[in-house]
What we know:
The complex is a heterodimer.
Chain A: E1 4-13, E2 16-17, H1 19-28, E3 33-35, E4 48-50, H2 74-90, E5 108-113, H3 121-128, E6 132-133, E7 136-137, H4 139-144, H5 162-171, E8 177-178, H6 186-199, E9 205-213, H7 217-225, E10 253-264, H8 265-270, E11 277-286, H9 299-311, E12 319-323, H10 330-344, H11 357-360, H12 368-380, E13 382-383, E14 405-406, E15 411-417, E16 422-429
Parallel strand pairs in A: 4-10, 5-8, 5-9, 12-15
Antiparallel strand pairs in A: 1-2, 1-10, 1-11, 3-4, 6-7, 9-10, 11-16, 13-14, 15-16
Helix pairs in contact in A: 2-5, 9-10
Chain B: E1 4-12, H1 19-27, E2 34-35, E3 48-49, H2 72-87, E4 100-104, H3 113-122, E5 124-125, E6 130-131, H4 133-143, H5 146-150, H6 156-165, E7 171-173, H7 180-194, E8 199-207, H8 211-219, E9 248-257, H9 258-263, E10 270-279, H10 292-305, E11 314-316, H11 323-337, E12 346-347, H12 350-353, H13 360-374, E13 376-377, E14 400-401, E15 406-413, E16 417-424
Parallel strand pairs in B: 4-7, 4-8, 11-12, 11-15
Antiparallel strand pairs in B: 1-9, 1-10, 2-3, 5-6, 8-9, 10-16, 13-14, 15-16
Helix pairs in contact in B: 2-6, 3-4, 7-13, 10-11
Amino acid sequence: xxxxxxxxxxxxxxxxxxxxxxxxxxxxxxxxxxxxxxxxxxxxxxxxxxxxxxxxxxxxxxxxxxxxxxxxxxxxxxxxxxxxxxxxxxxxxxxxxxxxxxxxxxxxxxxxxxxxxxxxxxxxxxxxxxxxxxxxxxxxxxxxxxxxxxxxxxxxxxxxxxxxxxxxxxxxxxxxxxxxxxxxxxxxxxxxxxxxxxxxxxxxxxxxxxxxxxxxxxxxxxxxxxxxxxxxxxxxxxxxxxxxxxxxxxxxxxxxxxxxxxxxxxxxxxxxxxxxxxxxxxxxxxxxxxxxxxxxxxxxxxxxxxxxxxxxxxxxxxxxxxxxxxxxxxxxxxxxxxxxxxxxxxxxxxxxxxxxxxxxxxxxxxxxxxxxxxxxxxxxxxxxxxxxxxxxxxxxxxxxxxxxxxxxxxxxxxxxxxxxxxxxxxxxxxx
Amino acid sequence: xxxxxxxxxxxxxxxxxxxxxxxxxxxxxxxxxxxxxxxxxxxxxxxxxxxxxxxxxxxxxxxxxxxxxxxxxxxxxxxxxxxxxxxxxxxxxxxxxxxxxxxxxxxxxxxxxxxxxxxxxxxxxxxxxxxxxxxxxxxxxxxxxxxxxxxxxxxxxxxxxxxxxxxxxxxxxxxxxxxxxxxxxxxxxxxxxxxxxxxxxxxxxxxxxxxxxxxxxxxxxxxxxxxxxxxxxxxxxxxxxxxxxxxxxxxxxxxxxxxxxxxxxxxxxxxxxxxxxxxxxxxxxxxxxxxxxxxxxxxxxxxxxxxxxxxxxxxxxxxxxxxxxxxxxxxxxxxxxxxxxxxxxxxxxxxxxxxxxxxxxxxxxxxxxxxxxxxxxxxxxxxxxxxxxxxxxxxxxxxxxxxxxxxxxxxxxxxxxxxxxxxxxxxx
Lengths: 431, 428
């Protein structure tokens, strides 16, 4: 089976645009969780989020494509920005930058995880306002002419596969393409699938990962209704997200795009590409406990780790850096710890852990950013801090540090799981 | 590499809720398209659709306690999965559930329409043309129900199937618009080939028959507006075709490695032998006019199956009934099949069932299995006016006896997503 390496990383995150900026800020302990800026959150119990810094989407697409940015929901924009960053980082010249790309477009796949895209409420309500009956929408008025207030392409702003669609058009990528929609597990599942597509020879290259924004009223209201978002830290967002900490009270919503260029090893070597790491193992599993609650045994989550390590021919003792999902919701953190114990055994006490959500929030389908932390730790020999993980729940021992530290990392792991019970683990290895 | 076979099937469709009765109706050329009743669509440009009728989850699943809040799409998925599981003879069979996976191409659930629209309209500030999000939040928290909200997530059908079956293996949901469940079954096959599971549930479920779903497609002018004669509204490959008709439902298949199926003595319905997936990378609104991406998807599927065009005895077309798709698909089939193009029967069951969007591909693949089993091809109904652009053998208006050893199923999604599957009679 062919080997697969990472030759490009693209990131737009709450702590910076660009993989380099993200990484510097992550190591420095910078917190991107703040009071929400995109709308007035004061009516919500949770008013904080990991929001990306302001950007102009036009700066990240070819001039000829600027018109199409009008039909991009924010999730799509985040994917487009991350894709631009990933390509520039990889040294591969796509159709976005040259008329003669440096690869066969039919051998370049795309696999971008996405969430449930929320319609822009201002746009939709302005249209609905023309067909109102009191505070209700009059469907007959709406059907007759209200709907014509919406742009003809309105639906296409919100189809989850439009993230991949815009990216494949901008960069002219015609190989196997897919859009995984498994909430927080989407990015890792998409990366794992792209990895296997290259392994078996159906593509030589792929851009993969995910992007999502939950920083909008619908995204926030759902996390609040589920009582997942913390309502205890509106005045102290930097301390809000506390993965595995005794004082954890919930997650902060977030938004991001995190994409990778995967490349078949011999191809990457031949062009002298910079290789961050080998993507050496992947596994996906499913809980069967509940659609809203974590399986307290962590059984299937553990299985994902065990199988991914086996896929990579690695063992727990090889792991030099572990980026867990670490939401900062006590019941979920407990279940994850139970799974970690099952999968890692005695090695759990010594493996350096870095749950990054304290700094960026939960990036949902954008959790490719979490995987980037695992890759960069391996590449640079720097382990990011766990800034809010001070006193661990249930007296568990976990090797975490308040500040970044240096360590030789030969194998790193990134795991995620979704509300709904999909689990995924990725194992990276030094070339 | 493991060989992969289909050992069970189930569906919930606008034409019925079990494999055999729907198959009969398809062969009879009946229609599931009627006036829309799910909501008041009377003034919409399109007021017809192919709704699933008289559906009760309790008819399909004994214990509903873990599925109490399931959305319409998820309920369809559960019922279709229960059928497939049973038809595969898996009820009561002891399986290694860590090696049973699920790969769906299911769509998102329907909005809680009243809560959603009322919260938005109540919080609208006409003076500034913007939403007062503080007021919106107040009303949203009063009106919205937590279960109805999270059950809209596109991974929920998948998560419910895991609860139903106990499957703990690889689990994915993809949502590549109208190609989703074809893609899901293709990727499920790859997981089995690789040996990461013994059994995979593959398929999809979707319902977009709700006010904003119809709005979206109407604004794109993708839907037929032939409201006066619903059964005649969906006209794939006909010169007077005017768009697709929105349907809803679910299709599920049980896929197994050949080895696993044979060891447990399963009845094998067909072998899945080829899969191709490509992106047009052309435009978000239009397909590639020469069907370039579709050509490569079909070619890749043939290569994957070690088959040549002459080996394919039937193509279940994407055949939506839009002017663009049917012309482009015809061009693409000709490009792939060359001189054989005119000899291969091509039909579209969307003429009867409407377009089940994410679920369409799974339902259509099941149709291919049945065509191979019974050696008969379902017709393309409403094909009354020849279109010079569409000059293949579309099995017009009447089912046809035929030798079918291998069949191809195409699905193309908005945004240029192309997926093709090929199945074969087993044993060949």
